Automatic annotation (TrEMBL), chain A:
It comes from Desulfamplus magnetovallimortis. It comes from the Bacteria. GO terms for biological process: D-alanine transmembrane transport; L-alanine transport; L-isoleucine import across plasma membrane. This is Leucine/isoleucine/valine transporter subunit membrane component of ABC superfamily. The keyword Transport applies. Pfam families: BPD_transp_2. The keyword Transmembrane helix applies.
TrEMBL record, chain B:
Belongs to the ABC transporter superfamily. The keyword DNA repair does not apply. The gene is livF. PANTHER family: HIGH-AFFINITY BRANCHED-CHAIN AMINO ACID TRANSPORT ATP-BINDING PROTEIN LIVF (PTHR43820:SF4). It comes from Desulfamplus magnetovallimortis. Keywords: Amino-acid transport, ATP-binding, Nucleotide-binding, Transport. GO terms for biological process: L-amino acid transport. It holds the Pfam family ABC_tran. InterPro entries: AAA+_ATPase, ABC_branched_ATPase_LivF/BraG, ABC_transporter-like_ATP-bd, ABC_transporter-like_CS, BCAA_Transport_ATP-bd_LivF, P-loop_NTPase. Residues 7-240 form the ABC transporter domain. The keyword Thylakoid does not apply. One of its GO terms (molecular function) is branched-chain amino acid transmembrane transporter activity. This is Leucine/isoleucine/valine transporter subunit ATP-binding component of ABC superfamily.
UniProtKB/TrEMBL annotation, chain C:
Its main location: membrane. GO terms for molecular function: branched-chain amino acid transmembrane transporter activity. It is found in: Cell membrane. It is a multi-pass membrane protein. This is Leucine/isoleucine/valine transporter subunit membrane component of ABC superfamily. It comes from Desulfamplus magnetovallimortis. InterPro entries: ABC_transp_permease, LivM-like. PANTHER family: HIGH-AFFINITY BRANCHED-CHAIN AMINO ACID TRANSPORT SYSTEM PERMEASE, HIGH-AFFINITY BRANCHED-CHAIN AMINO ACID TRANSPORT SYSTEM PERMEASE PROTEIN LIVM. GO terms for cellular component: plasma membrane. Keywords: Cell membrane, Membrane, Transmembrane, Transmembrane helix.
Length: 361, 240, 407
């Protein structure tokens, strides 16, 4: 049981994996007999990074990392939005948010495999993919609304510690619920999706990366429109600023909070499918580490600030990929935490945050 | 003026936890009136308004609006019924623009044209808001914020407007401007106004009737003129 | 009765229907393109039945119909409570101690093993209690200090052959240093930010343990850690001192019991000391505490360091017990588990924490066939406690509201 095992296996990109498979295939087989899988991967990866030292001053390598960083950053941004929106509206770190992300990944794989099983995947790939994304997002929105009503709403007037602990409990509960219904082992995504990519010299942009970038862009624009241009978005921002006053102008805070949870979870679900497609599989505890990283992104951008979460997500993604590429692949998870800690220490309001009332933090 | 009060509080007891802010408060507001509640700091004036709006739920007693009990109704359902409050300290949404603040006032309304017309009407009442429509609410001066808060409340098309300390922290000239507009709203739109003020002189001059609230209890009730000339009131609240 | 609880029943019905909607896609849609309902419905019916019974009990209880049962029970409980109060405390404390001493002699190896785990978690829970319960700071990376203690002993023992008793203070000391390192930058923050930052620090320590191959042997862990050795004089040829290795589980139990007793006494003494009052004042209202002349920063750092020391000492014992350490023992879930015990028992209350640990370690052992539901139950316990009894099973005597909650 390794919370970060999922993301350990992921390493960086499929681009890398291909590299080290070629580099040390027989070593891999030899070691496979000696160690458990994840430690094996660590070893091999270390080996790979030593092997790669020569190539690192290459411009192509830099551009490749940049593209990988943006892809990963986009995914983090999608998750971070949920944290930041929920925090903005009810001042609670929704620990269960990472689980919405994981649930999204699972429901995505369930529907994609279902469509593949029915045989529609070959004939109508676009429809099936869109449907899977839509259904997973709807599912997570539905899940999140219920979770909020059960575990957070009754505690809204209680102490913040109580709500936080309840959120933590919900996170553990959901993660194990996923394990019980879906199994302990990784669940593979249909592998025939999105093979290949575009090559520019040494730089590869896979079609999957293109899909992720486009979809992330669309979702972010849609969210921006919703929050900044519609009446609902206005009401959401108003509720975040002053709940009593919003009630006095006929805004129902319960409905706004539900809506916020639904949107945040929907975005996380989309990120979950993307991660599933990107790395080929999902795992019940995959929400934990990306959850903290996305939270770091939200804090970095200024918690409660939607644009900030997007920027923060991109920065965290970049830092992780470049840190892994140029400094150390083994400590790539640490970079996000260090950013989190230093932001909170030096500038708790984040790079784009408003001044936060001291007692709230 | 009809006999049926549009808003009535019957024996309201209210408070925060173990602190009793209101004890047995009863008052009546008739359609078209301007009623002032005056009282010192901490007398329970704001609690009275918050209880009417359902933010604070009373321990005992009932609030009737147009003859119907409303204490069980959620606060967000009251503005559509025509009951709206401008709370103490304005409480405009600081990180929303002036225009967005006004649009939110009309949150429950769906008539796009009506909303646009009303926004124009508010800009006519308060031209300064029109000039600053794209500015964030938090960047406005105190007086402008008060105007915005009143404008936002007008966007809900209130039948009864509850005003909590509209003069708080404002320069005298702006206070007069605001009270003029309050009088206009009452006269032109026929909106009933329940006004809560520490500044008894101003409030009683604007009002038709007045109540005096002392430590959570109503101690006096009379025509505003009479209160204004009541020697006790003059001594206690008007500094004579 | 139906009328009274109309809202409860309505919410329950909606909730159960919601649950059905949540379960079905996970259980009823299969990769071969088929859709089934049977499994979903059967799982759902189990949950429905379980929650229905609980709800009925709840409804009957709140409506007062359960009084014939609860009144005598509550009366008996009160009687026992007053008896405990009337009796001089040394009587029941010594009774408990005697039970604890006899325990390994009358039970088997397995039960002793469980008891040792319970004692470890009691130490951890008490240490975390200093941070969360007394000083009021939510620490989600607490298990990292346990890891530091365990690794300190394991490394010193394996690499330099140092004995347990030499390493024990070093473990405590290094954990304390780690606590200060984590505490120093984080203590300026309040509430939930502190929680997430400690979580981050905990993960950083675990990742370092996992990746620093040269020092820690990474995820494979360190094997061959020696157990506790005691020097015993032997009188065969004159007098020689020889090391006796504590290999028998029963004997090991007594050492851990000793540690737990020390921890209980220490936390109790701390709680009722000047320092404890300072911590509680920080928990109740940090600003007011500062104005009253409590150096909040130092006291918070001290709370962190104290909590870390307990974890470090327990960690050294843990390494000696397992004879093996690996980063997998120090994941976030462990932190969450300890926290769950503290929350269940009652933050700030020593008997509460002991009860919480026993409930969450011993009960899952008793229901081993439901092993995989264990974390599910932990999560649910935390939520339910927060919803219905946030002060815990045995609430602490002195608690008020946390400062940031006052409006």
């Amino acid at each position: 049981m390794h919370p970060d095992r999922f993301f350990t296996v992921e390493i960086d990109t499929n681009f890398h994996i291909r590299g080290w498979l070629n580099a040390g295939h027989d070593r891999l087989i030899k070691m496979g007999k000696l160690f458990r899988v994840h430690s094996l991967v660590l070893r091999i990866r270390k080996n790979y990074y030593d092997h790669q030292n020569v190539k690192k001053d290459n411009m192509d390598y830099f551009i490749q990392q940049l593209i990988n960083g943006i892809t990963l950053g986009g995914i983090y941004a999608l998750i971070a939005l949920g944290y930041t929106m929920v925090y903005g509206v009810i001042q609670l770190i929704n620990f269960a948010h990472g689980e919405f992300f994981a649930a999204g990944g699972y429901v995505g794989v369930i529907f994609l495999s279902f469509f593949t099983g029915l045989g529609y995947m070959e004939t109508y790939p676009v429809v099936c993919l869109t449907a899977s994304f839509g259904l997973a997002m709807a599912y997570c929105a539905y899940l999140a609304i219920g979770v909020e009503k059960i575990a957070y709403k009754p505690l809204r007037k209680e102490s913040r510690l109580a709500a936080l602990l309840s959120a933590l409990g919900m996170s553990i509960f959901l993660s194990n619920g996923l394990m019980l219904t879906q199994g302990v082992y990784d669940k593979a995504y249909p592998s025939e999706l999105f093979q290949g990519g575009m090559h520019f010299g040494m730089v590869t942009v896979s079609y999957l990366q293109v899909l992720i970038l486009v979809l992330t862009g669309v979702l972010l624009v849609a969210l921006n429109f919703l929050v900044f241009k519609t009446k609902m978005g206005m009401a959401m921002r108003a509720t975040a600023q002053d709940k009593t006053m919003s009630a006095l102008v006929a805004i129902s805070s319960n409905r706004i909070i539900s809506l916020t949870f639904a949107i945040g979870a929907g975005l996380a679900a989309a990120a979950g499918i993307m991660v599933g497609l990107y790395y080929g599989s999902v795992r019940y505890d995959m929400g934990f580490i990306p959850g903290i990283k996305a939270f770091s992104a939200a804090v970095l951008g200024g918690i409660g600030n939607i644009t900030g979460a997007m920027v923060g997500g991109l920065i965290i993604g970049m830092v992780e990929v470049f840190g892994a590429g140029y400094i150390s692949g083994e400590y790539k998870d640490v970079f996000a935490f260090i950013i989190l800690i230093s932001v909170l220490y030096f500038k708790p309001t984040g790079i784009m945050g408003e001044n936060i009332d001291d007692t709230r933090v | 003026m009809s006999d049926q009060p549009i808003l009535e509080l019957k024996n309201i007891h209210s408070g925060y936890g173990s602190i009793k802010a209101l004890r047995d408060v009863s008052l009546k507001v008739y359609p078209g009136e301007v009623v002032a509640i005056i009282g010192a700091n901490g007398a329970g004036k704001s609690t009275t308004l918050m209880t009417i709006c359902g933010i604070v739920s009373p321990e005992k007693g009932e609030v009737y609006y147009q003859g119907e009990p409303i204490t069980k109704i959620n606060p967000e359902n009251l503005p559509p019924m025509g009951l709206c409050q401008v709370p103490e300290g304005r409480r405009i949404f600081p990180r929303l623009t002036v225009e967005e603040n006004l649009i939110l006032g009309a949150f429950y309304r769906d008539d796009q044209e009506g909303i646009l017309k009303d926004i124009k009407h508010v800009y006519e009442l308060f031209p300064v808001l029109g000039e600053r429509s794209k500015q964030h609410g938090g960047t406005l001066s105190g007086g402008e914020q008060q105007m915005l808060a009143i404008g936002r409340a007008l966007m809900t098309k209130p039948k009864v407007l509850l005003l909590d300390e509209p003069s708080l922290g404002l320069a005298p000239i702006i206070i007069h401007q605001i009270f003029d507009i309050i009088a206009d709203i009452n006269k032109n739109d026929g909106t009933t106004i329940l006004l809560v003020e520490q500044n008894a002189n101003l409030a009683l001059k604007a009002a038709t009737r007045g109540y005096v609230l002392e430590t959570g209890e109503i101690t006096l009730e009379d025509k505003a003129d009479a209160l204004l000339h009541n020697p006790e009131i003059r001594k206690a609240y008007l500094g004579e | 009765m139906i009328q009274e609880f109309k809202k409860v029943w309505k919410n329950y019905t909606i909730g159960m229907l919601w649950l059905l909607g949540v379960l079905w896609p996970l259980l009823g849609i299969h990769p071969d393109g088929t859709i089934t309902f049977q499994k979903t419905v059967s799982v759902w019916l189990y949950i429905l039945a379980g929650t229905f019974v609980c709800l009925i009990l709840y409804v009957i209880n709140t409506s007062g119909n359960l009084k014939p049962v609860t009144t005598p029970v509550a009366g008996a409980a009160r009687k026992i409570g007053s008896m405990i109060e009337v009796m001089p405390s040394w009587i029941w404390i010594s009774a408990l101690l005697i039970c604890a001493f006899i325990y390994p002699l009358v039970t088997g190896r397995y039960a002793t093993d469980v008891a040792i785990t319970v004692l470890f978690y009691i130490c951890l829970g008490l240490g975390l209690n200093v941070v969360v319960g007394l000083a009021g700071m939510l620490d989600l990376g607490y298990i990292a200090f346990y890891g530091v203690g365990a690794y300190t002993y394991a490394l010193l023992n394996v690499n330099f052959g140092l004995g347990f008793w030499v390493c024990l203070p070093v473990s405590g000391f290094l954990a304390c240093i780690a606590g200060c390192i984590v505490g120093y930058p984080t203590l300026r923050m309040r509430g939930d930010y502190l929680a997430i930052v400690t979580l981050g620090f905990g993960e950083i320590i675990r990742i370092i343990l996992n990746n620093w191959m040269e020092l820690t042997n990474g995820p494979n862990g360190i094997l061959g850690v020696k157990t506790i050795g005691i020097l015993m004089p032997f009188f065969e040829n004159g007098m020689t001192l020889e090391t006796l290795w504590v290999k028998k589980l029963q004997w090991f139990y007594y050492f851990v019991l000793g540690l737990a007793i020390v921890a209980i006494i220490a936390v109790r003494r701390l709680n009722y000391s000047r320092v404890g009052r300072a911590w509680e004042s920080i928990r109740e209202d940090e600003t007011a505490a500062e104005l009253m002349g409590v150096n909040t920063f130092n006291y918070k750092l001290l709370a962190y360091a104290m909590g870390a020391i307990f974890a470090g000492l327990a960690g050294a014992f843990f390494a000696a017990r397992m004879k093996f350490v690996s980063p997998e023992s120090f994941t976030f879930l462990e932190s969450a588990m300890v926290l769950c015990m503290v929350v269940l028992g009652g933050m700030g209350s020593i008997p509460g924490i002991i009860l919480g640990v026993v409930a969450l370690i011993a009960l899952p052992e008793a229901f081993r066939e439901f092993e995989s539901y264990r974390m599910l139950v932990f999560g649910a316990t935390m939520i339910i406690m927060m919803l219905f009894r946030p002060a815990g099973l045995i609430p602490a005597k002195r608690v008020g509201k946390r400062s940031e909650d006052k409006e």
